[in-house]
Design goal:
With 594 residues, the chain is an alpha/beta fold. The chain contains 22 helices and 18 strands. It is globular, with a radius of gyration of 24 Å. The structure holds thiamine diphosphate.
Length: 594
């Protein structure tokens, strides 16, 4: 029987690789990010056939790690499985950082790597990475939720389907299939998927009625509730904001939850945790606050200011989540509500029964700078200095970029400046039920340099014509900037903002703030605008706030390819990372006092 979605090879056989692509198509996945090589060729052959038939297609990246970051960015904007692939040996070792990042950030991702042919195992075959070679399966083990070698063709389909189910499991994450070339190339007996994969995608269990009723009871009697929104709030953001409005509860977010709510929402008090706002911290410390409803948050070190007891991690906490791993961090919570966040808030609103359209506050017609949270350095935010203050860069960006622009911020000082000072002109006062409605994305758990450069390309491919901004540092650009050529190749409307301080800035400022030795942070001067031009992108140099005016001559709503702004920033401006450095200092002092 022939397969309607993935035509077979010219010889007529339908390989395991064709089968894999058929499953991806059923899941509506559009892209497989990776780099070809001998052992993974059967998959690329199938992808070539798939592309011709309008199915999932290969996006060739420049470093396999970038492919994993792009798969991450694709998932974050669409909710669809991220898929990346690599050849055996160095291709697989290259991809590992991106897979580890996805593991830490709970990203559903399918990672397919090649292996040499089964009969060559143990014979020092070229790039052999079986258990008797450079054991790539062993390397993947700690950073995947399912990890297996497909040792014969009969296993392929059942292991693939198991992997797909596990990727979206109770704690989502990357899954890895290591596939010998001969297994990938072998014919599938029936030529079509045997499983109804859509039906097998795990349904999230609903929270028990009792626990949602207890939550509602607690909210009814709460004198002063407050909401803390993490990234998992995206599953019900409209209803969560509505619930907060009904209760007139202030809202703060973790750094990962920033972007789900408009900065101009009257109830919003800013970000807690790394690079956050004092107003958010004070809102939580307010003694009148008796109930903290924390929704969908990985309560990691940086999200919570090292698990600070005085703000979030105390008995006032009610923890609502659907990812089991997140609950392990909140034994102190007075109530846990475990189950689909979407279902919990639908039920909660039904039980509160008082919501009406009238409870929405009026949409702020001109939200510029009318937010209800405090900035650490308002002078820097408004500074006219040359070189430009990085906080001022954050202030300028929304002035020029379209309102639907997505911002993705790189680990380093970039995410610190952006978390604190970037406030897109966001009119979404009512939240949104769309999965990918966050206007700002960063991850603070694994925090690999180069993540944003890759992730932004995956996001831009997913979002088609909507502009995406990647805010990154010069160190990260030197580490992963080659991926710009992917954006050039696919004409992506991607704008790279390089905060150029000729330094590994976070390291430099961190060393200064902690009184450590000053070492290893210098970077030579690089003209990134010219680098971008050499790669086929548009390059612009920005030294002062006035230089942003050049953007007025560019149709940013209709970019036909990437653009890079090489922003020469004031290298002395201290980023909002003092909370982080205080923790580092405390750790150093504890070690010394032992
Ligand atoms: C792959 C990787 N290596 C090292 C680090 C440690 N690190 C965190 S931030 C940083 C400096 C980043 O420099 P740059 O990209 O120039 O950004 P800046 O901090 O100057 O904004 C380093 C080295 C890391 N997070 N990831």
């Amino acid at each position: 029987m022939t397969n309607p979605v993935s035509p077979a090879t010219p010889s007529g056989s339908f390989t395991m690789a064709d089968l894999l692509v058929s499953y991806l198509r059923k899941l509506d996945v559009e892209f497989v990010f990776g780099i070809p090589g001998g052992a993974i060729e059967p998959l690329y052959n199938a992808l070539a056939r798939s592309e011709r038939a309008g199915g999932p297609r290969a996006i060739t990246v420049r470093h396999e790690n970038g492919g994993a970051f792009m798969a991450d960015g694709y998932y974050c904007q669409t909710g669809k499985l991220g898929v990346c692939c690599a050849t055996t040996g160095p291709g697989t070792t290259n991809v590992i950082t991106g897979v580890a990042s996805a593991y830490a950030n709970h990203i559903p991702m399918l990672v397919i790597t090649g292996q040499t042919a089964l009969n060559s195992f143990g014979k020092q075959a070229f790039q052999e990475s079986s258990c008797t070679g450079v054991n790539t399966l062993a390397m993947m083990e700690p950073c995947t939720r399912f990890n297996t070698l497909v040792s014969h063709p009969g296993q392929f389909e059942l292991k693939l389907v198991t992997a797909l189910m596990k990727a979206f499991g109770p704690t989502p994450g990357p899954v890895h299939l290591s596939v010998p070339i001969d297994v990938m190339n072998s014919p599938h007996p029936t030529g079509e998927p045997q499983y109804d994969i859509q039906a097998l995608m795990p349904e999230l269990l609903s929270a028990s009625t009792g626990s949602v009723e207890r939550l509602v009871e607690r909210l009814r009697v709460a004198k002063r509730p407050i909401f803390v929104l993490g990234e998992g709030s995206r599953f019900a953001i409209g209803n969560i904001i509505l619930a907060a409005q009904v209760l007139q509860a202030p809202i703060v977010t973790t750094p990962q939850g920033k972007g789900l709510i408009s900065p101009y929402h009257p109830l919003y008090r800013g970000v807690i945790g790394f690079a956050g706002h004092q107003s958010a911290v004070e809102s939580l410390r307010d003694e009148a606050v008796d109930t903290i409803v924390c929704v969908g948050a990985a309560l990691s070190e940086w999200a919570t200011n090292a698990w600070d007891v005085s703000t979030l991690m105390n008995q006032r906490l009610i923890h609502v989540d659907q990812e089991e791993q997140n609950f392990a961090l909140t034994p102190m919570a007075s109530l846990h509500v475990r189950g689909s966040i979407a279902h919990t808030f639908e039920t909660l609103l039904e039980l509160l029964t008082c919501e009406t359209e009238e409870t929405w506050p009026p949409v702020n017609a001109n939200p510029r700078e009318q937010w209800s949270f405090t900035l650490d350095d308002p002078e820097g935010f408004h500074a006219d200095s040359n070189p430009i203050h990085p906080a001022r860069v954050m202030r300028e960006l929304p002035n020029y970029l379209p309102r639907n622009t997505r911002y993705i911020a790189e680990p380093g000082n970039s995410f610190a400046w952006a978390i604190h000072y970037l406030h897109p002109y966001d009119q979404r006062m009512r939240g949104s039920r769309d999965f990918g409605s966050t206007l700002f994305k960063t991850w603070i758990e694994f925090a690999s340099m180069g993540w944003a450069i890759g992730s932004a390309a995956g996001a831009a491919l997913a979002l088609k014509d909507q502009p995406v901004v990647c805010i990154t540092g010069d160190g990260s650009m030197l580490m992963s900037g080659q991926e710009i050529t992917v954006a050039v190749e696919h004409k992506l409307p991607l704008i790279y903002i390089v905060l150029n301080d000729m330094a590994l800035g976070m390291v430099k400022h961190g060393q200064r703030l902690t009184g450590a030795e000053r070492i290893g942070w210098q970077i030579p001067q690089v003209d990134f605008a010219r680098m971008a031009e050499a790669m086929g992108a548009k390059g612009i140099r920005i030294e002062s706030p006035a230089d942003f005016e050049q953007l007025k001559d560019i149709d940013l709503r209709n970019l036909q390819g990437p653009m890079l702004l090489d922003v020469i920033i004031d290298p002395e401006a201290v980023p909002p990372i003092t909370k982080r450095t205080e923790v580092l200092k405390e750790i150093a002092e504890e070690v010394l006092s032992v």
